[in-house]
Amino acid sequence: MTLLNIVLRNMECDDTSLAISPLLPRKCGFGYASGMKKLVLAEKPSVARELARVLGCTIREKGYLEGTDYIVTWALGHLVELAPPADYNENWKRWSIGSLPMLPEPLKQVVIEESRDQFDVVKGLMNRDDVSSLVIATDAGREGELVARWIMVKSGWKKDAERLWISSQTDSAIKEGFANLKPASLYDNLYHAAESRAAADWYVGMNVTRALTCHYDAKLSAGRVQTPTLALMTEREDERDKFIGSFYWTLKADFGTFTGTWTDSEGNTHIGKEETVKALETLLPGKEGSVASVDTTDMVDQPPLAYDLTELQRDANIYLDFSAKMTLDTLQKLYEIHKIVTYPRTDSRYITHDIVATLPDRLKALSGTPFGPLATKYVAEGYRVDEDRFVKDMAVTDHHAIIPTEQKVDLTRLNKDEKALWTLIATRFLEVLSPDYTYKTTVLKANVEDSLFQARLTTPVQQGWRDVARISGRRDDLAMMDDYEGGLASLKSGDKVKVSSVKSRRFSTPAPDRYTDATLLSAMEHAGRFVDDADLKKHLGGGLGTPATRADLIEKLVQYHYVDRVGKEFVPTPKGREVVRLAPLQLRAPELTGKWEERLSAIAEGTEDALSFVTDIKKNARDLVEQVVATRDSYHPAFTDSKECPYCHGPMMKVVDELGQVHYVCQKLSCSYEEMIVKKRIKVEKPKDEKPVVKKVVVRKVPVSASASPTGMKRIVLKKKPMASFSLPDDADTSPSYTYKYEEETVVVRPSKKDWHRDDKRVVEHRDFHDPHIAREKDSLGGGGTFADFIKASQDRKNRDKKKK
Q1: Cross-strand pairs, 768
Q2: CA atoms of 346 and 401, how far apart (whole Å)
Q3: For the packed helices 590-605 and 610-630, what is the interaxial angle rounded to 10 degrees?
Q4: pLDDT tens digits, 637-667
C-alpha cells in the first residue's frame, strides 16, 4: 500500500481516528488569525535556507529566518534522542550482567547536549504567541518524521501541525508543496513505525551489546541489522578459507572463416581433464566436419529501470569507485544545493502519472549539457513512456525514482564527483525514455569427430537506449558481440568445415569473491536469497535495513574495525569474525530483521499495532541476553600482527589511525591498555672524521662550426673555468656539527585499569565493571575499542570548534 493510499484512507476516517498521536490536534482544518505566522521546521540548515528564500523570509536571526507570514528554523539531524540507561536507574551506569535485561517502560527522550543551543531556539519559537501552527518540513520519510515529532514532544507542542511532503527542492516543487499541505495527523502511523524502530534498536542494541561486552570482557557490539550484515561478510570469508581450487581447460578451433568453442551436450565449455584436452589437440587439426545448425534469432533488450538509491550506489561503485556513503553524500548535495535531482533516499524505481506531464521540462533542463541534443530531439519528436516499466503509481511508496528535476543544469558549478554522479543519473533517465535495443543473434553449431563446436554472431539492428551511454563516453563499442564472426553469415546447415588448428587455455576455478559496496548492497537488498524457508523469504522482501540507512551501517562496520576496506573489497578482521561467532544465532540470521522490517511497514500502513510490536521486541531482547550469558565460549580473535598486553597478557589489536600512526589496543575491557608507536626526531652529533660531500661537475666541450648558425656567421662560446674556492679571514666553518635521525617510541595513550588498581590489590572482575571513560551511553553501543572513542572525541571537538566559528 502506498503512502498516498494510507493518507486517503485516513482522510475517510472519522475525527477520532485522525487523532492517533496525543501530541497533535484532532481537527484537520486550519484557521489563522491576522498577524499570526507559521513555523516551518526543516531538518538541515541548507534546506531551511532554500525554503526561507522561496517563502520570503529575509530577516536572519540566530537559528532561524523570519518573514511576514513564516518563520523557518531547522534541526541539525536529530536534536532529541532516547535517554541512556542511567536516566532510568542509577545502578545502570555500571555495566553488569546482573543488571540485564534493561527494559524500561516507556522509553524517554532527552535533548542531545551537543545541539542543545539549536533545540532551545526551536523550542522558543514554538512557544511564541504569534506562532499559530507548525509545518513539518523535515525529510519526507520515516526517519525525518521522527526528527520532527521528538522535537515537538520535548518542546510540548500542542497547536496545529501540517506536513510538507515533496520529492525535489526546486522553487516550483516547494511552492506546490506549501499549496498542498496535509494535516500532520495523517502521518501518525509513519511516526509510530519510526518510534517503534528506535525502541527496537534501543532494547536489543543496549542489552545485547552490554551482555557481549560484560560476558566476554571485550568491547563488542551487536544490532538487528549490523550483525546479520557482518555475518554475510564473515561467512564469505569462511568460504574462501575452505575453498580448494581446481584447474579446467577451454578449447577453441579455427575453421578459417570463424572460430568455434568446444562445448559438451549441455553447453558447458569447461573441460575438467588435461588428458582430454591433449587428445583433442592431437585428433582435431586437419579433420573435416559439418555444420549441424545455423539459427538466427531476433532479440530485444528493454531499457533498464530508473534508479533508486541502492541501484545508483551499486553503479557508482562499479563505474566510479564510489563507496555507498560517498554516493549518498554526493547525491544529497545534488539534491539540496544544486537542486538538479529528486529526493535521494528512495526505494522506488518508478514514477507516478502526475510526474509524466513534467518530463518535457526535465528534458529541457538538460539543454546546456552533452545530453542536450538528444533531450531536445525527444521534446520535439516524442519519447517513450512505458506504462509497465516506468510509470506505476502502485510501485511508488514515499518517493518516486531518482530522476533529474526541472532546474536547468550548469555543469560548471559541479565538482568532479558531483558531475560524474549526475552523469549516471541523466544517462539512466534518457535510457528509460529511449526505444528498445534490437539485434540479431546467429548461433552456429558444427560437429567434428564427435566433438561439438559453437560460434556466435550478434548484429545490432537498432541501438536504441544503448546509444545514450555513448554520449557520456561510458560505452565505446555498442555491438555487444560475443565473437565477431563475419563468416557465419554465409554458412548454412550441412556445409562442410575443416579444422585448421586448435588452441587450449588453462584456468583455475576462482575462490568466492569478497563483497564490495556494490555486491554487499545487493546482498542486503535481497537477503531473502540466503534463506531456504519459503515463508521466511517473504519476510525479507525489504532486505536488511533500508536504502537510507545501509550506507551509514557499512561505514560503521569499517569504523568499528569489524571489516577493513582493501581496495574495493571488504575484508573481515579477526575481531569482526569473533563478534559474529559469539553473537546469538538468532541475531546473526537475516530472518529476524526481515520480520521486524515487515512489521514496521505494517505499522506505517496502519495494519499493525505498535504496542504489540514493542512488547515482542522486549521479550526478544530478554531471550537474546539469556543466550549470551548461557554460553561458555571465550573471546579469542586470531590476530596475525598483534602484541601481548604487558599488563593482562591478552591480545592487542593493531589499528592504524587517520594520521597513519600505529596503535595497539588491548582487547580486554577490564584492562583497556592502549599504546601508540610514534616516530621521534633526535639530534645526534656528526662523527668528527666525517668529511663534507664534494659534488663533482663534469664539463663537456662541444665543437662549434659556422654551419651551426642560421646566419652563417661564426658563434663564439666562452667557457668559464670553475672559480677557485676562497675565504675571507673572518670566515669560520658554519656547517652544523650535528644531524637528525628518527627513532620509534612507544607512547601510552590509555593506561591499564589493572595498573590503576595495583596499589590497592583489587582484582577487576570482568563480569562487573564501570568504565569511567565512557562519557555517553551511545558511545558504548558503537564498539570498536578505545581507539574508536579517541577518534570520535576528536571529531566531536572539531564539530564544536566549527560551531563556535
Answers
A1: 96
A2: 7
A3: 160
A4: 999 888 999 999 999 999 988 888 899 999 9
Residues whose CB is less than 8 angstroms from the CB of residue 136 and which lie 6 or more positions away in sequence, other chains included: 41, 145, 148, 161, 162, 163, 164, 184, 187
Peptide bond into 344 cis (omega under 30): no
pLDDT digits (tens, 9 = 90+) for 584-631: 988 888 888 778 888 888 999 999 999 999 999 999 999 999 999 999
Instruction: Look at strands 643-644 and 651-656 and give their pairing.
Output: antiparallel
For residue 506, the SS3 value is strand
Cα of 676 vs its chain's centroid, Å: 30
DSSP strand pairing (37-42 vs 80-82): unpaired
Within 8 A by CB and 6+ apart from 265, the residues are: 452
pLDDT for 334 = 95
d(CA 231, CA 577): 8
pLDDT at position 71: 97
**Cα(385)–Cα(440) distance, rounded to whole angstroms?**
25
Q: Which of 318, 342, 344, 319 is nearest to 330 (CA)?
A: 344
Spatial contact of 665 and 641, defined as CB atoms under 8 Å apart: no
Q: How far apart are CA 624 and CA 203, in angstroms?
A: 11
Q: How far apart are CA 67 and CA 44, in angstroms?
A: 19
CA atoms of 151 and 457, how far apart (whole Å): 64
pLDDT at residue 301 is higher than 60: yes
Alpha-carbon span 452 to 289, nearest angstrom: 10
Question: Rounded CA gap, 174 and 181, in Å?
Answer: 11
Residue 20's pLDDT is 32
Catalytic residue among 203, 248, 343, 560: 343
Find the helix or strand (DSSP H, E) in which 375 lies: helix 372-381
Rounded CA-CA distance 322/328 in Å is: 10
pLDDT in tens, 509-559: 999 999 999 999 999 988 767 665 565 555 556 678 888 889 999 999 999
Nearest to 223 by CA among 233, 211, 235, 215: 211
User: How many of the other CB atoms lie within 10 Å of CB of 47?
Assistant: 21
Supply the DSSP string of 315-365, one letter for each residue: HHHHHH---HHHHHHHHHHHHHTS--B--SS-----B-HHHHTTHHHHHHT
Distance CA(254)–CA(285), nearest Å, equals: 9
User: pTM for the full model?
Assistant: 0.77
CA–CA distance, 120 with 112 (Å, rounded to integer): 11
Cis peptide before 25, with omega less than 30 degrees from 0?
no
Which range, of 31-35, 406-410, 591-595, averages the lowest pLDDT? Answer: 31-35
The DSSP bridge partners found for residue 746 are 677
Beta bridge partners of 252: 261, 503
- CA end-to-end distance (rounded Å), the chain: 47
**Strand ranges inside 407-562, DSSP E:** 437-448, 451-462, 496-498, 501-508
Q: Residue 80 and residue 111: Cα distance in Å, rounded?
A: 4
343 is catalytic: yes
Query: What proportion of the chain, given as a percentage, has pLDDT over 90?
Result: 62
Helix or strand or coil: residue 420? helix
Taking the CB of residue 270, how many other CB atoms lie within 10 A of it?
13
Of 578, 767, 788, 561, the C-alpha closest to 670 is: 767
* Alpha-carbon gap, residue 37 to 599, rounded angstroms: 39
User: Can you tell me the distance from the alpha carbon of 146 to that of 191, in angstroms, rounded to the nearest whole number?
Assistant: 6
Distance CA 191, CA 168 (A): 22
State the CB neighbour count (10 A cutoff) for residue 684: 10
Q: pLDDT digit string (tens) for 412-425?
A: 999 999 999 999 99
Closest CA to 51 of 33, 72, 24, 35: 72
Let me know how long the chain is. 805
